[in-house]
Design brief:
253 residues; alpha/beta; 12 strands; 26% strand; elongated
Length: 253
């Protein structure tokens, strides 16, 4: 049994994580941590880790960058592994996370979906075979409330593909401002915002008279919560170090 503490348990994603834990017979939520306290859940909700009476096996954080110091402080003091799903950290905070991984196991990924990380692995394999002779374009689609563009996941895909190519490509985010032919040494990244699209990512390899595409559609945010819980089970018995979804995929293959 993996006993989990959920940071940001009263938030939307925290609720999805609590549901995913409840549906996993090998996990239980020991407690939640939320600055606003209170909850209709069947587990205690603390305002800070200072109130924790029992030690969890793993912490899952789907909250806000402002909670990082308190969470890492508790995790380091009590040797508790952390699955960090929050985004928007500063460079200094990312450095803190990496430093913590010298002492505890830290799972840190910009996207917790197993499917999207499988897409990244498939796109890397396709780039190794096709990348030098095919044009590469990435299209991402999200709901109309999403502020950042391109998505962090689109950039994850671009970075992973870029690492497999012989030369470092240029990322091109728009084409209307420059009237010129597409160069071979670039990856186009395009954003669509509309309706309630949870998240769609497509990697296009366009060659001479043929096109190869790799696509992923997230139809519910629950997939990210389930990925976080899978990561927690995986991380429970791992030694100190930095882990991501590629490690979890290898474990499942």
């Amino acid at each position: 049994m993996t006993r989990i503490a959920i940071v940001g348990c009263n938030g939307k994603m925290g609720g999805y994580v609590a549901d995913a834990v409840a549906e996993n017979e090998n996990c239980e939520t020991l407690f939640g941590v939320d600055a606003f306290g209170g909850s209709k859940r069947d587990f205690p909700v603390l305002r800070s880790f200072d109130e924790a009476a029992e030690k969890p096996d793993v912490i899952i954080d789907f909250s806000h960058p402002s909670t990082l110091d308190g969470m890492l402080g508790y995790a380091l003091k009590n040797s508790v592994p952390c699955v960090i799903c929050t985004t928007g950290y500063s460079r200094e905070q990312i450095a803190e996370i990496k430093a913590a991984a010298d002492k505890i196991a830290v799972f840190y990924s910009g996207n917790m979906s197993l499917g999207i990380n499988l897409l990244i692995e498939l796109a890397k394999q396709a780039a190794k075979v096709l990348g030098n002779s095919f044009d590469i374009e990435i299209v991402e689609k999200h709901h109309n409330l999403k502020v950042d563009a391109p998505s962090g996941t689109a950039l994850m895909i671009a970075d992973a593909v870029s690492d497999t190519l012989d030369s470092e490509p240029q990322y091109v985010y728009e084409r209307h401002s420059a009237r010129r032919r597409r160069s071979k040494n670039e990856i186009g990244i395009h954003s669509v915002r509309g309706g309630t699209i949870v998240g769609e990512h497509e990697v296009i390899f366009a060659g001479h008279d043929e096109v190869v595409t790799v696509t992923h559609q997230a139809q519910s945010k629950q997939v990210f919560a389930e990925g976080a819980v899978n990561a927690a089970v995986f991380l429970k018995d791992q030694p100190a170090g930095m882990y991501d979804m590629s490690d979890l995929l290898k474990d499942k293959m």
